[in-house]
Amino acid sequence: MPPIDTLKKISIKDVAKAAGVSITTVSRVLNNSYPVNEQTKQKVLETVDKLNFQPNAIARGLVSKKTHTIGISVPYITNMFFTEVVQGIADQLKRIGYSLILSHTQGDGDEEMKVIQNFLNRQVDGIIIMDPFIESVSPEFYREIHAQIPTVIVNKYFSSDELVFVINDEEQGAYEGTDYLLRLGHRKLVFVSGFDGYASNVKRAGFMKALAHHRIPDEDYLILEGDFTSEGTYRLLRKELKRLKNYSAIFCANDLMAIGAMKALRSQGYQVPQDFSVLGFDNIGISSLFIPGITTVSQNIYDLGRVSGQTIIKLLEGKKVPSRHVLKTSLVIRESCQEVK
């Protein structure tokens, strides 16, 4: 049990004294109620972190008429990609004393609309919608939400100047991943996409663009549709193994699918990368721990969350932000791909 003095509750007066500012200045920073010099603001926030100061949310809400909460909607809480993005968001919100309410939709459009309505009922100050179900929910729905409350859409994009998007350039990432396989000498490639939708479509477009650039004929590539899970990909590739014998490289739409692909290949006695090169997408934490380490296109997942968190904070402060913030992907080379001998 920690010493009694370490359990002493830190007050706003303690923060002000440690930061060398007035109590009023600390209050203005925490409540975003009045402009404060950026250098002073950062000093106060760093002091809040250092002292682990926890403002009384109820009291702050009564004064500012804010709940100091952000609602975050994710399709699947079990997917490690979304876990890392949420961590990046949470770290930014913590710096200004905000909490998050996390809800998952299981990738269902109707459930997503219910979740967002629940956020509004709970009077959150802003909403972050991750991987919105734009395939079945009208864009007008998202516009109406943003008109009511600061809203940021993460990891999907559709044309709309009224909304704010934070995304990765997944098409370029898929192009660079495919180009890498082709430069290794692979000329017979398989692309395993997820179910039809934005994430699969942009990656497929990058894959096809690279094939066209290298003048790969139609008969030398194969596109299979999976479900973004390792289990589903394992079953799919077990079923398609006879067709796969004619190919030398498999590009999966995410790292979980790459794990499922390698498991399917191993179950039939094939080795990675000796018999098949396997490329993933995302660079989730487990991709570096798997054996062999998965060569993958990194989406800089934590940064996607960090920028999303910074963007919602700017909206809360009434600042202007670009309609679309696009992050660059990068290729992470490990051991699951090798040059054709």
From TrEMBL:
Record-annotated membrane-spanning stretches: none
Keyword Phosphoprotein: no
Regions annotated as coiled coil: none
CDD domains xref list: HTH_LacI, PBP1_LacI_sugar_binding-like
InterPro entries, sorted: HTH_LacI, LacI/GalR-like_sensor, Lambda_DNA-bd_dom_sf, Peripla_BP_I
Gene3D superfamilies per record: 3.40.50.2300, lambda repressor-like DNA-binding domains
SUPFAM superfamilies xref list: lambda repressor-like DNA-binding domains, Periplasmic binding protein-like I
Keywords noted in UniProt: DNA-binding, Transcription, Transcription regulation
GO molecular function, one term: DNA-binding transcription factor activity
HTH lacI-type domain span: 10-64
Pfam families: LacI, Peripla_BP_3
PANTHER family: HTH-TYPE TRANSCRIPTIONAL REGULATOR GALS, LACI-RELATED TRANSCRIPTIONAL REPRESSOR
Protein's name in the database: LacI family transcriptional regulator
